[in-house]
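Methods — Computational structure assignment.
A single polypeptide chain was analysed. Its primary sequence is given first, followed by the predicted tertiary structure written as structure tokens.
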Amino acid sequence: MAYTMSRAADGKMRVDYGSTSVITDPNTQKMTILDHLAKEVRTIPLPPQAGIPKPPEPPKPGMPAGAPKPPTPPAMPPMAVKDLGKRVVEGLEVHGKEFTMPPLAPRKLPDVKPPAVPGAPQLKPPGLQPPAPPGMPQPPAPGSMVSEVWTSTALQIPILSRISGPFGKQTCHCKNVTGGEPDPSKFLIPPGYKKV
């Protein structure tokens, strides 16, 4: 999927793909979505960012005070980070890092014995053993996932990213990169657009 991204020094960002543009402004904490075919604009608040304290959640109905907490999910295995050094991609100096997430241990399914059929005679002919019931299928063990990210040292944006894992491979290549401040009009709502 191809898209165009513009980023201003004050943190505003615009992403254009197909007939849609998304403008985010961290100063006003708003996201503006432009539909260029319908000439409509929607403005929604940005989700709160990490680090901003949130008010405590009220107790959930049906959970009495002092009730045992639900089990915590298993801890994620540690990620290995390897420095790949510097090189030139698309005419820009980039610094590379490789992130390897080891495979997660597959969850052990409980042993479940098939229920006995009530009223069925339990006949065992002499010398014959009935076949064992099939066991529960085990989920396939996921393999490790490797991400290689090459970030521009001047622009601080990823220029080349490769992710590979059990799902296959995905590559994201940033082309036609230019530095400098984008035109301020890129972050304004075009005239004639209807607010929805």
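Note: The CA atoms of residues 134 and 144 lie 30 Å apart.
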